[in-house]
Amino acid sequence: MNSVFGKLTPYNTIIHRLDPRVKIISLIALMVMCFLPYGNYANRFIILGGLFLIILFIMLLGRVSFLSFLKSLRHIWFMMVFLVIIFALIPQAGDTSTKHVMIAFENGYTIYWEGVLQTLHISFRLGLMLSLTLILTSTTSPMDLTYAFEWFLSPLRLIKFPTQIISMTLSLALRFIPTLLSEANKIMKAQKSRGVDYQRGFLGKKIKSVTTLIVPLLVSCFSRSDELSLAMNARGYEPYEKRTSYNILIFGLKDVVAIFVVLILVGGFSTLCYFTNNVEGFDDMINMIFGVATF
Amino acid sequence: MQIKCENIKYIYNPKDPNSYYALDDISLEIEKGDFVAIVGKTGSGKSTLIQTFNGLILPTSGYSQVEYFYITSDKKLFKSKIKNLSKQEQIDNKKQYMLRKKVGMVFQFPEYQLFAETVLKDVMFGPRNFKVPEEEAKELSKKALSEVGISEEYYEKSPFELSGGEKRRVAIAGILASNPDILILDEPTAGLDPDGKKDLIKLIKEIHESGKTVILVTHDMDVVMECASKVVVLNDAKLMKICTPEELFNGDDFETFALEIPTFYKFKKMLIEKGYKKDISSINDFDSLMGVLGEKHE
Amino acid sequence: MSKAIEVKNLCFSYEKDVQKIKNISFSVEKGEYVTLIGHNGSGKSTLSKLLCYLLEADSGEIYLNGIKVCEENSAKIRKIIGIVFQNPDNQFIGSTVENDIAFGLENRRVPREEMKELVLKYAQKVGMEKYLKKAPDELSGGQKQRVAIAGILSLNNEIVIFDEATSMLDPEGVEDIKRLIRETKREHPDLTFISITHDIEEAYMSDRVIILNKGEIYKDGKPEEVFKDKDEIRKIGLDIPFVLKVKNALKTKTLQIPDEIKNIDELSDFLCK
User: Fold this and answer.
1) Res C127 pLDDT > 60
2) Cα dihedral A64→A67→A70→A71 (10° resolution)
3) Number of folded domains in chain B?
4) Residues A125 and A257 in one domain
């Protein structure tokens, strides 16, 4: 599948072997770190830059290709352009006296540094989030994600919520995605041979062409699910009965270490966040080290 | 010559590290009115080859040609080929549906393409797409349905109410209704019972006798033996040989192509290998062979 | 001792007026290899689903090992009888080969350690041990059917039904699965084996052939007897096995071939003697 979120890579690195639950929690923790306010823009870029280096290191560990990261960035390109328009070109509301002019047009239209920096900042955050998700999806099989998902839902069992049915449904859906994609491809070819043009045509015609794909696909979906339920039944599946599980998630030493590392990172970045916002003179210190002007 | 392939190659997933040749340097010619069987094991490139004939797949290099239509992804080659055609033919070459009208393609399990509310509407779908006038489309569709043996009482039924065999015949009628000059069928007998298979083979033979060129992709060597006048053997994306069914079955290289040979030929071959005392190598039908085998007792 | 399968006056219909199974009675001994033939719509698959309690009979009774097939016994029935279906894709439940083999074991609440051993053992039995981590879309149809067979065998059922398990495969896959079926049969002589098929050559090799036609038993007996009257067989649109064709043709020329000869290999040996 070609999507923003990449595809499991066939390696067996330490990141691949981590417990998916640990990976999901770490992902969320690091994402929060991306969204903490780190004082002024200069600080923000420096600290997020640091975070980026750390993420890059994790990518290296998990053999996530940098190329696929760049490719997935392509998908948010449109969003970035959109943000530029919103933050940079739309006149800034409120008090503009404290802002720094970047370009002032003669008709009174002004682009401020703050607007541009804010766009860059948001894009930077998005990029970081994207790289984190990419690490998760390219080192974790969808099935492992479902097992983790089931585990996170498990407290709901206390209120008699059928979590195992949900995760069974989810795993069957994942199992059948490639099958249905190849089926859709076959149907499309058959209809093309009957003169359907899926590319061209106006709206009405397009809807008609899509029907020629969707209807057969649904019909086959239903017949498949019929047969599937028979097969499951024949092998003794009872949705509400207890089953044992072939796959178990093992929380090992490496997972403890991973959690520990993530905790340190969270602690570190929270402290930085606190310092940049509450300790006077901290900004100046950073500025002195890196020699950047304050905005 | 009606269909021609010249040195066609097709690379699957060209940008992927797992790219491979699905077709590797294939050249062949098919005459009008031929009944050609394309055989080879799964993954040998059979389906890819036939899809170049109606432009669903464009060869990476080389070209397929169907009458005056040229099919290739090599733009330079395409331009140089259509240069000498008439104006109208050049325009036709740029419209995919003109080619697809000429070359009817019946895919494996064609019943999965049915979608319309009624049988008649589904069959009319093709001709309508090919811009056949409404009345004519209806006539052609009714004719196609009667050819495949679907009677009038079915016209207004939903295609999804029919039995498996009936669905398949309706789907084939959907292709015949566009009145193609060339009919390509990919594993048409797959999943049918012996009776259904016999009916379908009879139908395909009738279609061939009505003057159409028929190309059949199949694993079923009994069908090849019964119908085809010419066999194209593919293996690992390469063209192995073009011959008559008898030549193929009497030859000793079919095992290398992982083909399953009709029981009759397997039996004959075993007898020869085990040193049967009479010469039976030129016998190609069951009754004559039985005649020879029974002789000594008469 | 009770019979493996006992069917008494079984009737079933999907719709009100169309009776799919018309008053069928038969029984199968333990360890018997029965092929069930007949063309599409003759009720073969319906019968197999009734046997596994995937459909409920309108009237009549089925006993498996003396246990009545009905709602309250459904869990017991599942432990006696297993079925391999036609479509390799639609019975592949797990996300990988090992998960699919394990699926039935999970339902039986087999402990994980034991399950691991069983999965490996049966994967080896069907020759799929190198593919344990593979997803179904990376496998051929024949390989998927092997996995399905491993999944059924791992449950250690006494009766196994193959419902046209080879009809959607290419010739290589067909040969592959047929070979596997023969091996399984040899290794487990106690296994009662019902094969629903269009392959008359396979039927000819089995212990017993039941021909269904329009929901009724048309013929039932040893292959030699069932296929004896070729006109009657042809009348309902079936063919007779090649070896038998040769035997019949040579009989008219007064060359008698012994009944034990069942395949072309033995036949050609005999003729070249």
Assistant:
1) yes
2) -100
3) 2
4) yes
Q: Residue A234, Cα to own-chain centre: how many angstroms? A: 38
Contacts of C89 in chain A (CB under 8 A): 179, 224
Which burial class, exposed, middle or buried, applies to B222 when counting CB atoms under 10 A from its CB (0-12, 13-18, 19+)? middle
What residue ranges define each of the domains in chain C, with the CATH number in brackets?
5-228 (3.40.50.300), 241-273 (no CATH)
Confidence (pLDDT) at A97: 61
For residue range A5-60, list pLDDT tens digits in order: 557 777 888 899 999 999 999 999 999 998 888 877 778 888 899 999 999 999 99
A158 within a domain of the structure (yes/no): no
Asked whether residue A87 is assigned to any structural domain, the reply reads yes
Q: Which two tokens stand for residue B137?
A: 């489309």
For residue B288, the enclosing domain spans 262-298
Same-domain pairing of A265 and A139: yes
Helix, strand, coil in percent for chain A, rounding step 5: 70, 0, 25
Domain interval for residue A37: 14-147+251-290
B282 and B250 assigned to the same domain: no
What residues of C are in contact with residue B195 (Cβ under 8 Å)? 39-40, 237-238
- Number of residues assigned to chain A: 295
In angstroms, the CA B83 to CA B68 distance is 11
Considering only CB atoms, which chain A residues are within 8 Å of B115? 211-212, 215-216
| Residues A57 and A140 reside in one and the same domain | yes
Q: Sorting pLDDT into bands at 50, 70 and 90, what band is C260?
A: confident
Task: Tell which wins on pLDDT, B66 or B278.
Answer: B66
For residues B163 and B298, membership in a common domain is answered with no
Residues A20 and A75 in one domain: yes
Q: Give the gap in angstroms from C-alpha A178 to the nearest C-alpha of chain C.
A: 7
- In the beta sheet, which residues pair with residue B217? B38, B186
- Considering only residues 209 to 228 of chain A, which have any Cβ-Cβ distance to chain B shorter than 8 Å? 211-212, 215-216, 219-220
Say whether both A122 and A218 belong to one domain: no
| Residues A55 and A133 placed together within one structural domain of the fold | yes
pLDDT one-digit tens code per residue, C57-88: 999 999 999 999 999 999 999 999 999 999 99
Determine the residue among C64, C79, C90, C118 to mutate to test chain A binding: the one whose Cβ has the most chain A Cβ atoms within 10 Å.
C90
* Neighboring chains of C (3 or more beta-carbon pairs < 8 A): A, B
> Do residues B185 and B227 lie in contact, with contact meaning Cβ atoms separated by under 8 Å?
no
Measured in whole angstroms, the distance separating CA A21 from the mean position of its chain's CA atoms is 16
Q: ipTM of this predicted complex?
A: 0.90
Q: Which tokens is C58 given?
A: 């309108």
* B74 and B160 assigned to the same domain: yes
Residue B226 shares a structural domain with residue B281: no
Q: Does A71 touch chain B (CB under 8 A)?
A: no
Assess whether B174 and B289 both reside in one domain: no
Query: Any bridge partners for residue B186, and if so which?
Result: B217
Q: How many alpha carbons fall within 13 Å on the CB side of residue B130? A: 33
Mean pLDDT of chain A: 83
CB < 8 Å from A in window 141-160 of B: 160
Q: Which chain A residue's Cα is nearest to B173?
A: A194
